[in-house]
Prior knowledge:
The protein is an alpha/beta fold. Helix content is about 40%, strand content about 20%.
Amino acid sequence: xxxxxxxxxxxxxxxxxxxxxxxxxxxxxxxxxxxxxxxxxxxxxxxxxxxxxxxxxxxxxxxxxxxxxxxxxxxxxxxxxxxxxxxxxxxxxxxxxxxxxxxxxxxxxxxxxxxxxxxxxxxxxxxxxxxxxxxxxxxxxxxxxxxxxxxxxxxxxxxxxxxxxxxxxxxxxxxxxxxxxxxxxxxxxxxxxxxxxxxxxxxxxxxxxxxxxxxxxxxxxxxxxxxxxxxxxxxxxxxxxxxxxxxxxxxxxxxxxxxxxxxxxxxxxxxxxxxxxxxxxxxxxxxxxxxxxxxxxxxxxxxxxxxxxxxxxxxxxxx
Length: 319
């Protein structure tokens, strides 16, 4: 029997961003320079495929530093950033640590610290419990940062002084949702100070823009990413709001909910910023077994961003 036709609209950019690429490089170069084991606090990025690949090479992932024995092996902090107390604990134990925090997350930390030092009350727009949010809140004393998750939070928030406010945001939020919250805060508190440039990172913005461009043309949409990946979950929401209700998040080809996609004729496909390209290609192959597929690249933006590696690893990277 002939296979039904399927046109796959493949979003570009998709997959790894510069911060994720840098974080993975840090672990791999540390393994190369110092040998295993290398310890990493929390998932280096939110993707099990990446984590399992690094585990196979000799990386040991832990939830907290007290799980790490006294060691000369490197200890790496994840791309999401950590509270100030974590490097302090590492230094107190004389652990050799490398910080893989994305530089764009570090930018948010610096903004929050600068505004707090200027006597401003700090609002953080983000999702409770996300490692990046925990890390940003942990840059300042307990209670110094107020978390705003929803428009309702923005409407009900009561500041100490309406004229002494500043906000920062998580880097992986929905651009549209964040704009709505910021608009409410600016309307209520005209003197509020925000970042000079949006804290939502270029990669999140570009991936959401690519999804918006094609969602209305699709009768099915797949986002490759992890359930705990904020930016991947936002891509599913963006696809649904932009015109494709039949949008799902999948870890890999094994997770495709075929009952939702058997009758699809135009499939949108993208990947969150921590999902490797190999998983995207795996999904294309899985659809090719069931459909007569054609793949059309939809380019929303070009990306050429790269971040410097920690100085301790630059000589290895240059080899």
